[in-house]
Amino acid sequence: MTGITGLINLADGVVSETDLRPALKRLSIYGTDWVGEWHQGAAAFASQVQFVTPESKYERQPLTMHDCTIAADARIDNRDELTRELGISSPEAAQTPDSQLILLAYLKWGDQCAARLIGDFAFAIWDAKQQTLFCARDHVGMRPFYYFYDQRVFAFSSDLEAITQIQGVTDRLDEAEIERYLFSLNLPYYTVGTTFLANVRKLLPAHTLTLTRGSEPRITQYWYPEHIKPASYRTPQECAEQLLHVVETAVRDRIRTEYPVGAHFSGGVDSSLLAVLAQRLLRQSGRGIKGFSWSQPVQVEEETKEYKRIRAIAQMHELDVHYVPSSERAVMDMVLEADLATRPIVSLVREHVLQRLAAQDGMRVLVSGWGGDETVSYDGRGYWGEMFITGRWLELYRNLRPRATKGQSRLSILKTVAHGFWHNVVLMGLSDRLRSRLQNSLIYKIPSDRFIRADYQKKLDNPQVPTMSFSTWGSRRAMIRSYYSGYLAQRIESWAWSGAESSLQYAYPFLDRRVMEFAYSLPGSMYVHDGWSRYIIRLAAQNLFPPTMSWDGYGGFKNETMLMQLPVRSPEEIAFHQQQRQALLERTRDNPWIDVDRLQKQLSNETETTPEDSAMAHKAIHVTRMWDYWKQRQ
Questions:
Q1: What band does 559 get if pLDDT is binned at 50, 70 and 90?
Q2: Tens digit of each residue's pLDDT (9 = 90 or more) over 26-64
Q3: Partner residues linked to 35 by β-bridges
Q4: What is the pTM of this model?
Q5: CA 138, 143, 145: angle at the middle one, nearest 5?
Q6: Are strands 132-137 and 146-149 parallel, antiparallel or unpaired?
């Protein structure tokens, strides 16, 4: 991974060589294998490089060629194709880093170059002749790219904290974004292009940004999942073989490193398939992976289904598996100390401990199954509605009824079918707002005004209440809506920042552009078949797992199982966190959004706290922490 940052002075046209130094200091967490700075006239770039791929050891960026300078955080996967089209010989290609490959692509194809790149990337190119800045981000946002623009300066960075250190960037919170967060019905909260910092935005995935002095930034989308053409296969087996091929290619590209490789390994189909493929590929060169499970080890006689799956697959493929216990203190520290404005936390409860263990082993790449649910391991949401509106009611009934009906009464079977019809057809066909009133889900029962100051509420004529985009009828439409929701990119951004602090780069083979295009091309019948959800990936993985394991109906760890494994807090830990929390609240009684007295009263009565109260209290603590952090910066 590489941390990049840059500044374009749009006012007097001059930058200083020291303008990026504070930001560069923050970016040191992204790697110190190479540190580079460049400035010329109105522009300045800086990079903190961590070597991962064999070619990355030749990175010397910011890199200048033909009056164009690039700063890039990238791993390009279609290198063979690009080097042929760019006329680079094989010996040269072995020493051509990805930043140089991207810059050569820009020199040849201009602003159309991003569409030709396959891989994970975020980059900025300053064209001195044209006095133009060109920036691009990969199709799903694997590499973060934040930017600030206000007529005087344009600044960018891989890191939110770093961008606040750049000269000319306004250092204040965005009240409108905090309002959306407090009144959002979604937990966790996902943004599309915005941040909690005023005038700081994210370059959206699959977009480019072009800025010429004297003009407004021009933002263009270059990849559209809805434009992918549907594919057809003669048999599901033929489709499964192609799935295995494209996923294996994505895994191979991501483990192309000389450093140790790790992998998440929950025992579910997604992570298990990736761990097995990575192990088989690395075994060809006498290496292997280390698998990490979030569950704490148990005695054999206490083994649950997930442990048995992990143990069976590990034995079959000689996988080294380590169980990662969660730390209650680490969880509370993360909630109380994280500034949500610059350090977003999404699903990192157990990952902090894993990151430290991986760093101790010298790992720089960790393969994750994140994104499988939204791509080739999709559960078929929306397909039931598609069957209903197209009149395929018998097929719909076969897919809603229980797979095992022996011994069940007809009434029991009909109840199961009716339940499935309500959730998978009726609710999925409603608007988000109407569904939010009918669906019995925690994310819709949170009162928006809990813990919010009365005087602040009076200022709001019509508070914005964002809603999450759920699936609708049609599996393809549902998958694409999920892509545009911001859900995938936000988790990726959070883990990128967190992993960087342990010199760890996350790799997501299921979010490879080729894998996603394959997934979006499939009909819903490849995801739902005779009552089986995730049908095609089960079929693809069945020969890589012990017999019947792909078809046992189990998808991985359940939340309630993991929650039960949280260690009991000691009285000392409880007292410590209560003191920390109390000190935070006492410092922030001037918080313009949160009624600290009401929040304190709720937190002091934890035994009677409802899940809804607890969820909103966490939001209130996050906003309070943001206010405390930014007040200290002034």
A1: very low
A2: 999 888 899 999 999 999 999 999 999 999 999 999 999
A3: 48
A4: 0.90
A5: 90
A6: unpaired
